[in-house]
Every structure is written in C-alpha cells, then in structure tokens.
Amino acid sequence: MLTTPIQIRFSDIDSFGHVNNAVYWSYFDVGRMDYLHRLFADDFELRDETVILVHAEADYKVQTRLKDAVAVRTCVAGIGERSIKMRQEIVNTTTGSVHASSSSVLSGFSKALQKSIPIKPEWKSKIEAFERT
Questions:
Q1: Where are the domains of the chain?
Q2: What is the pLDDT of residue 133?
C-alpha cells in the first residue's frame, strides 16, 4: 500500500471547522496519481493508452481538522480485463485512525479511439509486482 502525505490547506476547511467532504476527493486524486506515476512514469495520463476514473464512492468516518497530519493510503484491490479496482484511505498519521475510505474503478482507455480498452499485460505485471512489495 502506497502512502502519500497530504498538506491540508486553510481553503480546505469549511464553516464547521473541518475538511469539507468535497475536498476529500482531491486528496484521493493526489494518492491515485502518485500511485500511477510511481508505477508508470510521470507522463502516464498524457499517453494515448491510459486509464480513466469511471466510478468512485467514499465513506466519511472521522472529521479532519486543519492541524491534523494526514496521508492517503492507496492500493489496487483487483484487476479485471478492462478495469482496475482501487482502495484508498485517508489516515491520521499521528493516531492511525481512518478518516475516510474510498473504492474506485479505473478503466483502460484509448484517447485516440475514445473508448475502453483492455488492461495491458505489462500494466498488470507492474501493479502486481508493486503490490507484493
């Protein structure tokens, strides 16, 4: 599981004094992109054949405050013929408590064809090797 530190910004905080629920999605995005960049290189999302987010859901468990130290933990939970299932958690790095969790699905995608493509065997191999470490 990859851990990506998150810097909470003042603008992330709402009138209740905690991170607004919509902001969690940007934290999940940061973790997902860090995972993909570490595996495939910095330009993976710019390639013709890439992956796109097609489904995401989240559960909010604990309020996150401005001074909390948090990180996103990201892993691949499964690989199908045309999709990759990811699991993510936003955790307090001081207490270890999980503040939010997310499940998402990424689909193989060709920009040129503008349609879904199978997950490439080399992508699957890299993910499986990374998940074993």
A1: 2-122
A2: 79
The angle formed by the CA atoms of residues 74, 67 and 88, to the nearest 5 degrees, is: 10
- 2-122 falls under which CATH superfamily? Hotdog Thioesterase (3.10.129.10)
Q: Residue ranges of the chain with pLDDT lower than 50?
A: none
Cβ neighbors of 72 (< 8 A, separation 6 or more) are: 3, 4, 6, 27, 28, 30, 31, 34, 88, 89, 90, 91
Please write the tens of the pLDDT for every residue from 73-102. Answer: 999 999 999 999 999 999 999 999 999 999
For residue 6, which of 91, 86, 83 has the smallest C-alpha distance?
A: 91
The token pair at 122 is 């080399």
